[in-house]
Every structure is written in structure tokens, then in C-alpha cells.
Design brief:
alpha/beta; five-stranded mixed beta barrel; six-stranded mixed β-sheet; single chain; globular; 295 residues; 31% helix; OB fold (Dihydrolipoamide Acetyltransferase, E2P); Rossmann fold
């Protein structure tokens, strides 16, 4: 007689190898059949096969899925997320383009977002906040912290949520993780050993329990974040500052470049929109159209 199905959550995923947290402890799991699109954060049902191993039998429907894609590759990052924590720092200089792309990905999936500025103890902190001021004006919350200082304000925002932490390399995500989850390094070593995949920080995401109701998903450092998996209307609507003007252009198929009667161009000229935003939309249009030509 086969073992009963156990509900669990994917703690880490690498290729076709997974660690699933269950009420019976973590299980090193394969996936039934050819399916390999399981990601960190997924809720699944597994069947234990003995010796701390199991098989993923069922994937529970996701609340959301954060991913990135260019013309040639699609990368699912994590699922069932309540908050996207976009980590920047006073130094090294971060990419505003990358920050905005992460925020757009969250908007498409209706995931709340928080921009974190790490290394707040450095003199460059004020300049980092100033670079993010246009995003704060749109309505995004920006919080300054030091990974080795008081993180109580951050912990309050993470409470009761599953949070995905993303950002460029060098922003101090590992230091933040180790402060928030003191045994994270040990857990990472265990996960990497179970998956036989080397260093966690360069290969795969991992989910950590902050408390009984709060989870933090750490992810490898990002250098780019393409959004070619989303349609042009989805991308337009992902800009909350554009929404009051969408549908107000003279032409229904307006591309918001130099068409007469474009509501976005007019709002930008009147100082109601940050010019960098429309410029980003035009880049995303070009990337999506290039991806379409490759298919």
C-alpha cells in the first residue's frame, strides 16, 4: 500500500531536484512524470518514499508566479508571494532600470512591493534615497536599513507574509538574510547538499521561516530583468502612474512615442510624469517585439 499524500511547500528547487518542507520534516523530492516547472514557494502534495526522500505528485494552484523572460529564455523565480522586497544599497550604485523592472513584474502579478535601501549607515545613503525619490512619489514605499543594525521596521513589514527578496549582487542581501534568519547559512548548506548543486547563493532560491506565519525567499543576484513574457497592454497597465491616462490617447493603438494626441506624452510634457518611465516603456515594447520575431 502506497504512503499517503503529504501537503508541503517547496523550500528550494534546482533542475528536477527539490526540497519540500512537510509536517514529517524536509524531504528530498523528484517530480512525477516529465513535469519540471516546480518553483520555490509552490504548495504541493508529496508521497514519501523512505530515507528522507519523496515524489511530488500534485501542484496546488498558485496565487501568483514571479518570473522573467527574454526572447530566448524564461525563468520562473518563485510563487505564492505576498511581498516583493527589492533590495538596493547606498553602494555600489544600483540600477534604477532593474529596480523598476522588478516593480513592474510585481504589478503584473498584483504583488505588493517594498524598496529597501541597505547600508543606511554609509554617507552615500542620502544620494541613494534621492535617486529613488521619483518612485517614492509614484507611491512605492522606500525603507532605509542597515543589515547589521535595527531591522524592527523591516520585520514588521515582513510579518505574516511570504516575501521574495531580489536585487543585484553586492546589495547586501546575504547579510540581511543572515541577520533576519540567524541559522540561514546552515540551512543553505543543508539544502545545497541535498540538491547536490553547490553554493546556494549562485544557483537557486530558498525559502526560510522567519516565524510560524512569515517566510522569506532569498534569490540569486540579478543583473537584468527582462519582461518579454508579458503582453504590451499588461506592461502599460503595470505602470501605476500611467493608469489615469491609459485609454485617453487620440488613437486606440497609440504606442506613446510621438503620435499626435498621446495622453502620456502630454502628461510628461506637463510635468505630471517622470520622463524615465515612458522611456522604459518604449524599451520594453522593443524587447517584446524582438521576442515576438524570434518565435
Amino acid at each position: 500500500m502506497s504512503a499517503p499524500l503529504l501537503p508541503g511547500r517547496v523550500v528550494s528547487a534546482h533542475g528536477r531536484s527539490f526540497v519540500v518542507g512537510t509536517s514529517h520534516g524536509p524531504l528530498r523530492c523528484a517530480v512525477r512524470g516529465r513535469r519540471a516547472d516546480i518553483v520555490c514557494g509552490d504548495r504541493v502534495e508529496v508521497r514519501a518514499t523512505g530515507g528522507g526522500t519523496g515524489v511530488i505528485e500534485t501542484l496546488t494552484p498558485r496565487e501568483n508566479l514571479l518570473s522573467r523572460a527574454d526572447a530566448f529564455h524564461h525563468k520562473a523565480i518563485a510563487s505564492n508571494i505576498d511581498l516583493l522586497l527589492v533590495v538596493t544599497a547606498a553602494e555600489p550604485e544600483f540600477s534604477l532600470d532593474l529596480v523598476q523592472r522588478c516593480l513592474l513584474a510585481a504589478e503584473v502579478q498584483d504583488i505588493a512591493a517594498l524598496i529597501l535601501v541597505n547600508k543606511a549607515d554609509l554617507p552615500q545613503h542620502a544620494a541613494a534615497l534621492a535617486r529613488l525619490a521619483p518612485l517614492a512619489a509614484i507611491g512605492y514605499e522606500v525603507l532605509g536599513v542597515s543589515a547589521h543594525g535595527d531591522l524592527s521596521a523591516l520585520r514588521q513589514r515582513l510579518a505574516g507574509r511570504t516575501t521574495l527578496m531580489v536585487g543585484q549582487s553586492g546589495m547586501g542581501k546575504s547579510s540581511l538574510l543572515n541577520t533576519l534568519v540567524p541559522d540561514a547559512a546552515a540551512r543553505v548548506a543543508d539544502i545545497s547538499s541535498a540538491l547536490n548543486s553547490g553554493r546556494h547563493t549562485t544557483t537557486h532560491t530558498a525559502l526560510h521561516a522567519l516565524d510560524a506565519d512569515s517566510w522569506l525567499i532569498d534569490s540569486p543576484g540579478l543583473q537584468e530583468f527582462a519582461l518579454a513574457q508579458h503582453s504590451l497592454p499588461e506592461l502599460e497597465h503595470a505602470f501605476p502612474d500611467f493608469r489615469p491616462y491609459l485609454g485617453q490617447c487620440r488613437f486606440r493603438n497609440c504606442r506613446h512615442r510621438s503620435e499626435p494626441g498621446c495622453a502620456l506624452v502630454a502628461a510628461e510634457a506637463a510635468g505630471r510624469l517622470w520622463p524615465a518611465r515612458r522611456a522604459l516603456l518604449l524599451r520594453l515594447q522593443e524587447e517584446r517585439e524582438f521576442a515576438d520575431r524570434q518565435r
